[in-house]
Amino acid sequence: MDPTSAAIAASALFALGFLSTRALLPPLSKALRKRGIIGEDAHKPGRPPLPEMCGLVVPISMAISILALIPLSGFREAGPALALLGVASISALVGARDDLRPMGPKLKPLLLALAGIPILALRAYSPFPSLPFIGRTRLTLVYPLAIPLGISVTANAVNMMDVFNGSMTGTCSIILAGMALLLSLSGKWGLVPLPLAILGSLLALHRLNRYPAKVFIGDVGDLCVGASIGALAIIGGIEVPTAVAMMPHIMNAFYGLSSMGGLYERRQAKRRPVRLEADGRLAATLDEGAPITLARVILAGGPLREDEVVKAMIALTAISSALAILTFAALIPG
Amino acid sequence: MGRILEIALIMASVWGLLMAELYLLFLVVIPIPSPRGGQIWLAATNAAKIAIGIASILVWLYFWKRITELYFWRRVRGRGSAA
Description:
By secondary structure, chain A is mainly alpha-helical. Helices cover about 65% and strands about 5% of the residues of chain A.
């Protein structure tokens, strides 16, 4: 696909992702509320109930956009696009199962690893990833084994970041925009519409999920977006820069894992890293046994409103995305 | 906000150390030739390279954990009224 056709396809998919999500979200949230699929907004006084699992709209919107891209690209991008859709669908199913019947901290990453199968089955990867300073390397045996692990890690890291209104949608939108730029810089024009299709959907979702949220995304949306970011990094061969762009997410997951001493579920953490003050602001707890999450590190400087914490998370993701572009420059051996 | 700059500095330090370690590994450690001929020397050299690689990853993770913990507790105790 040439740059002009890619720009047209990317704009069309971005619009399709945005408009389909915007059209589907109100009836979906109404239906979920009616069925009693609701969660409490724990960081607001009075803990208002909001419809859960509204992130279900992301895989649906992705299916609409991606199935439109395949004929638009003259079927040249069918393999990578279908692999991405397969990863998104499997991870969304795992997320939906976790939303309806919560899973343990070991079963969920294991099931998410299965979401890597479509990439392997459709051979939508290159076992010659680019590493900083040396460029392309040959990892024909190790690389396919690392794919399920990569999908599981990115999905869980994004899931662990969805702690405040708009924190997942805001930070992942920055990452997806950066990925579209990285794919353009590496000349993979045919793949550029894929992150933009998800970005369109996420921005429409962000309008209702940002502070004060009217809908919750749920694991169905978190895991779908996280696994899709991992899949795009593999399909586009931009694994290392994407990992750098995801540094706030990885930091958040790593802080939690290292302070809790292993895999854990948020709902299992008895000691809370953050608490709600009487004035509605959030503050870091002084409990030495509570996980040191990114939010807790941000709040170490003093209490903030929920939307201010999310703005800090988005700003840090913008900085990490700039570092990702620098990392991409280091991929070209000197 | 000052706190964003401070955390961004931690992030940039972690990224900088990662890049420095990758530079040393890929351009200094991996190209080191086996000091003598023969399969045993070759295997020993490769095992030493893997050990250096694993050690550098552990150093990087430890640096990341320590710098964050130091920042967090220093900031919280400095304010003294977070709890």
